[in-house]
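Good day; I would like, with your permission, to put a structural problem before you. I would ask you to consider whether the tokens describe a fold that such a sequence might reasonably adopt. The full record is reproduced below for your convenience:
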Amino acid sequence: MNRLLDTIDEWASENGLDGEADPPHRFESTRVEELPPLGMDLTNGAIRTIIWATGFRPDFSWLDVPVRDRKGRVRHDGGVTEAPGLYLMGMQFLRRRKSALIDGASDDARELSDHLASYLGGTLSAA
């Protein structure tokens, strides 16, 4: 991020735009603990849900649930599918333009968790 911002600042300086904006802000480097946990016990029963991230291009051919359209995409409304308990996150334009980005996923997660809480509380239907 800071390299990108440096490039933008350099362009602004070269084009005489230094005084057009506030002084540049730089983010601190992400700190990682010296010995981060690199594994977890998946056999103790505490994990009951697995989220499968399929990678760069979505491929749901492995999904054996009748929620895919003729092109193999999952039909959904803001991440809520027709199959009770099946939700999507991180998809392009899931609920907004930034849905596929880490920053956008947080807003989508908040809204989907509200939906899920209502569903589990019995005040909302599945889809």
